[in-house]
Amino acid sequence: MVAALKRLPLLSLAYQTGWMERVAKKIFPWHLVTASLLLISQPQISLTVLAVLLGLLSRQTLSKQGLDERLDPSAVSFL
Fold this sequence. Notes:
The structure is a single chain. The chain has 79 residues and is mostly helical. The chain has helices spanning 2-7, 10-16, 29-40, 47-58, 64-70, 73-78. The longest helix is centred in the middle third of the chain and has 12 residues, at 29-40. 18% of the residues are buried.
C-alpha cells in the first residue's frame, strides 16, 4: 500500500484542494490517507480511533479535538 501511495501526487492534491496551506507539522497527506484506509478495517469508527492511527503513523500525539479542526470540507475534497 505504501508503494501505491507514493505514486500518487498527494502533496499537490492537498494544496490544490486547500486542505494544506503551509508545511505540515503533524498531519501529513499520506498519513491521513493511510489512516483513513486503516479506519475502514476497525470495528468502531471514531475521531479517537482516527487520531490514534494518525498518531501511530506520524509517531506523535494527536488529539481528537485537533483532528476535528483539520477535518473540514477541504479534507473531504482531498480524500
